[in-house]
Here is the input.
Amino acid sequence: MAVETRFSRWFAEQIGEDANISFASNDFAVVKQAVSTQIGIGILRDFAVFPADRLRSISLKTDESAPEFAVELFLVVHEDVRRSPSVRAVADYFGEALEGMA
Here is the structure.
C-alpha cells in the first residue's frame, strides 16, 4: 500500500509514471539513508544535508504546483505528567510559538 499525500503524488510525477519503485518511505531518516548509501532517490531539504553526508545538491524545475514542505506536528504528553507546572509551561510555550506558523 502506497502512502498517498500531495507531496508523494507530486514526486511520482517528477520521476515518471513508468518508474519501477520497489520500496517507498515517508520517513525522512530512511529516505536520507537510502540516498546517502546510493540505493535510492529522494528529495532532501537543504537544512538536513551536511558536508559529511557527501551528497551533491541539484535543482529541481518546480512550478506553482509543487507542494510546500509541511507536516503536521503533534505534542504528546503522558497523562501522569500533563498537569505538572513545568510540563504544562513547556507545552503551552510550544503551542503559542507554533500557532502563528499555521
About this structure: The chain has three helices and no strands. The two ends are 29 Å apart (CA to CA). The mean pLDDT is 80.
